[in-house]
Amino acid sequence: MPDTNQDAGSAYNYAYLDEQTKRMIRRAILKAIAVPGYQVPFGGREMPLPYGWGTGGIQITASIIGRDDTLKVIDQGADDTTNAVSIRRFFARVADVATTTRTEDATVIQTRHRVPETPLREGQILVFQVPIPEPLRMLEPRETETRTLHALSEYGVMQVSLYESIARHGRISKAYNYPVLVNGRYIMSPSPIPKFDNPKLDRNPALQLYGAGREKRIYAVPPYTPVKSLDFEDHPFEIERWPQSCDFCGSTESFLDEMIVDDQGTRQFICSDTDYCQERQENQRQEAERQEIRSK
Amino acid sequence: MTSPLLSVQGLTKRFGDRTACNEISFDLWPGEVLGIVGESGSGKSTLLNCLAGRLTPEEGSVLYETQSAGIVDVHHLTEARRRLLARTEWGFVNQDAREGLRMGVSAGANIGERLMAIGARHYGDIRRTASDWLERVEIDLARIDDSPTVYSGGMRQRLQIARNLVSNPRLVFMDEPTGGLDVSVQARLLDLLRGLVDRFHLSAILVTHDLGVARLLTHRLMVMQRGEVVEAGLTDQVLDDPQHAYTQMLVASILPV
To answer: What's the EC number here (chain A) (predicted)?
Structure first.
């Protein structure tokens, strides 16, 4: 028996998908970049993982990745969760790329539900995994109708949902998948990132690609494109803030996860972005060492 | 001399080889309420949908005088313009309020939708306008955050009217607005409608099979039978001195109380 671990890469075409499929997806990506926020249909393929685990993101990554790329995969901000680890290993095997957990070192970052805390730079590509690409879906179930609404930019109904939220809860209660207006034209679902990350989408130097595998849609936000979170004049968009700071690195600026750590209900707040948190801890440790040397 | 608000010429709508409306022409003047009566299947709802741009007729034209852009042919506008017209200068009141309302959101949001669609982005202002309109259609302000699913039939119908009138339309299409309501609720709704039409100088086209409603609300009447207008004239004239055999039958079949 051949060692499947060794040969898995060569048994498939480079980056798993065949070349025709990759060309088709690239065409969809180009169109999506040309019309920021517009959902481009594409012929989504079956991938070796279930829908909802990132099939859309994986297909985009497979179509844009090359041997000199460095890939980072995050799931809810973490580099070490099952989904992130297996997607990273998948591409290391079938696309022969270097992988990293460091945001600065990556050229392609595939992400589920977070935007890294470390600011992105030009030349980087952020690939989002999207479960429901249509922001109007919960308000208007008919696909023909939502397409018309987008085509004619009739977005009153989206505002109605925000109105309803204020009427019921006294504030806009939507905390993730918060709808945005891209380039003053299309309303877009930013995938279920916390609204904390919405400001990072605005005029970001990196290219943002969004892939929905089940719904077979690709959309994009090109670098430096304005992305505005919808709101009311008297109820402006706000991001969440925590009274606590990260228990590991002390950050007060990052998105914090709340963990219950024992049966007594003791809570701990830690950064959701593991790379950002570890880097800060590392810096603090080095700084402490330097202090120690200086004091000797 | 003013020009008509809506001018319909030779409108014909067919479904396959069945003609639903045949060669219908009329003018609607500003501030006028026109009733279309006739039995079920006579083509009155089809005609209304053609006028409102919801169905495309095979022949004929529907000319509407817009507030800003002069006279336009409703069926030669782009879809974007037509939909804009429909949610700013027009209103459409359905027989079944559930079709005309967004049942999943509160009454306030239902009234506010048109405002938000044309760019209102101030929650407080939208809510204030919604409250004003709830008051006008005699719905208790405490119900503003209730969903229309918990409203009675009459309240839903009044909410639908408020939702349509909030953008100050000039022309309102009504398809059996009082159908399916009990008589006392009907009377209140009619009273309300008459007041609103008067107060906001609305023009309206009202489809009904209830001659009592027609008598109370409309200035002019068209009687339809099998897709044809068989008689037209001032409401009182038509109802008091019907000329066509069908109209005579229709007037004669009103149940005396």
So the answer is: 4.7.1.1
